[in-house]
């Protein structure tokens, strides 16, 4: 019966496997209208005139909406994440607008919205919209953007600086002076896209009789969307229902809000009094859904002769795209995650976020952590080489010792609290990974033999931490139904993480019911009112803990009701198999369904202070995030001629505290690694000097296939988090975070690049660019 | 990403199809497997006013060797049928070997060889394979037909010698003489992607083991599929040693004119040609033994 | 124009524009929303259906072209309401899906694959799977699911 911690199959699968599960584009409503957008063809341009008359006149077109038609509804979007309380910081807020009014700031920015009887007709009409533009120089290169005289993304601002943040502790200058070795390098990380298989979409229906708006949205945060929409549309929250049904992958960009389309579709549905649907197509997705990753780091590490880190200094530029509604989450994560598993006595980090004429940047799986890990792990590799140290050894020497937790890093994290690692135990993870990958044997025998045979085999080995499970809070409502089934509702959305199973396991554990008898609803604001969203690997930690707390209260209510029924003490009761009986008398059991009925009497006096039903709502808000950690190790072989890699072995050893469902956890790790491999080797958005995206299709932007992702071997250690009742830490991003650093090290190792004086300092790195780099030696 | 409106005709015989094309001229496009044309229509980069759908012209779905051993492939013959034909695999292994690199089974189940050739993407495998195999194309119009060697068919990126009223009705691939070995190798970013560089090699050994004929065709190597003729000529008379292959590769690298792409710089493409040409030649030489 | 199509053994007659993609027809004209749309340019494989038994991209065919052919979608796999066929069951047992968006296309590809290759090895499964993109699973559990189904 115990389901917690077991590799159980998922509750949500049967409907998905039969094609019955509801996704946003599956919503069909009588009289449904369809939207297509006319989008800016230019990265940066003044809109001189806009002629939509032909589009309006086309048969089947119901409305064509421009910025002018929006009236007062035209407002820049809200700032989703305000800047952190870091002394002396600068933050220039420029949020996205629903439709371009006078200046387009990235290719694909919406300019006009066509509402028609079908998407086909809407696209026909879009082709008939005429716009006159005065093109402006496009800002793309981060350093050029900050040079005097650079074109300005936001002319009124007088600068392309979106933010500047400096965080420091210890005295780096002194550390560098005292150091045996100081290394300085420039590291770059380029843009990629999350590419969920389901693009974004919004369907909105205004019901004038019920005076209510229903919105189906591919969002990761339905409650926040509801609250925002209510405010914008002049409705009260109770009038708006937002449903995030099954979502076909999120990975972060579906957490961004408010996308222009999210603001416009509900407005159009109310104004036209007809349901309206917009489904992003894949071409739109490449321009209109947020990206991530471009940063340039100038980083420096100071070490003593034994390879102990004395200090790190990092100055980096972060590309925030054309607008910055998501605040500084990504660069703050880079800044904080750089510290990794290591004791860094002096740290001095300064970043400048830069506006560019490119699609907005918001968190995508890893959310800036990749960059920090890349910089730190690369610095350690370079240092190890200089000092003649083994790469595993230099990491081991710098690990935060087990007895040092909680470990205060002394910088402000993305959740605005001081970054403090709640728990961790890094050496066992490293040891397991070294053993699993056969490190010693590889170094001493396998690689030398392979080299002698003319083969280019290399190994990568990197460590990382992942800040997970941040606040502020989530809630959950647990209720025993008269059928005996348990319902659980929470406000977060689910994009494939298996919440309907993992949360059910948490509840089943407390209530002694079968996992299949717990029915989980996520992402429907009519089912649960409060919530924040699915991001930062926090679902299992925060909502899972809330579910646990609520289930505990329901358990007490069950036992109290049963004790009254059996006229016995609660301690004498056994709750199992969906029934309660007195210990030793299993034949006289009462089902949870009947108890739920008893708890909701139709007649008779009710004791003051009691509530009807077997139901509880609980909230959980951790004081700070739980820090997971891990090691990835990989053996890769390169074709020395073509520079195509083949991954021969891949090991992940991971510590995310208590594991709720190992099967789901493995899936999260596998998927993360696949995206990491994409990010390291396959996926790079390519732009020309005019800010045009050159590979906006799945034929040209390459996400890995089943032949590109190797079989992975996973192992775990368990260091429970003291910050939540379950002891869990998040795991959603762990697979993706360290892969860039891993590839860089493995490439150098396989191709013996250090011997030729070549270093890998950039990601992603496809074979063409890698070949160019190898020609330098 | 929805196609613009068009008038759709689905004739059931070749004459009717050609008459429709003659009637509508440049307004009309033939639709075969649709695996290149329909994506282009969904992106609205192709907006034909008229589609002449060949899928119901049963006579065009043909695949047979004639008395001379020439393989004749009809305009509606899908890749799937070619790659599963045991006789094709035996007699023209190069074709089947290269087909495995073309997209994925889901595309090959519908896509046609003729449609691919008319699309004339220089990065595509099949045009280069046609050059290597010295294929001939039968081009039909409502009032006549002509036969064109493959090398005269490809004029540039997405440009062919097809006149407005013409259809590529049949591909004719002559038999390979005894003693011939072939090999196809490519490097793509992922399985099924267009090659960053692809090499089709055809070698024939004489009775004493010396090379008596060689052809080398490359895809993603220029604005059209490229024949490396000087490289091929350099092999004739040699014993097909590694040194001969290296010399041929050096010539081939100089002969091609790669244009570069998002995935590969022209310099890297040339480098790949230098790597793949000897490998493909070695494969072909081994099979010619 | 009016045409008739047979999907999962059921005939549907509809009046449609010739340009209507088969994927849109299945989803929005006859309500078989299990077939998903991920790219509309033939790369992702989410919209894969069986056309006379062979997997094809339904986003790269016009609905009217399917007249006279046998179309099968994910809704046609399970033996009965509320049930799973062995391949679907294997996907559940091996955790071969996360968000489930790419899953119907993968099931259709693998249905045809297993009919032709009842006892594949891992390399063959990966090869056959390479025309369907999945962004969640890293493919490992999908491969496991297909191998599991082949052992049933």
**Uncertain stretches of 5 or more adjacent residues of chain B:** none
Number of domains of chain C: 2
Task: Give the strand tally of chain C.
Answer: 5
State the low-pLDDT regions of chain C, or none: none
Shape field of chain C: globular
Q: Could you tell me the radius of gyration of chain B in angstroms?
A: 19 Å
Instruction: Please report which band the strand proportion of chain B falls in: under 5%, 5-15%, 15-25%, 25-35%, 35-45% or over 45%.
Output: 25-35%
Largest interface: A-C, 56 and 59 residues
> Kindly, what is the distance between the CA atoms of the first and last residues of chain B, rounded to a whole number of angstroms?
51 Å
* CATH fold group of the largest domain in chain C: Ubiquitin-like (UB roll)
Radius of gyration of chain C: 15 Å
Residues in helices of chain C, as a percent range:
25-40%
Structural category of chain B: alpha+beta
How much is the average pLDDT of chain B?
Answer: 97
Short description:
Chain B has 289 residues and is of the alpha+beta class.
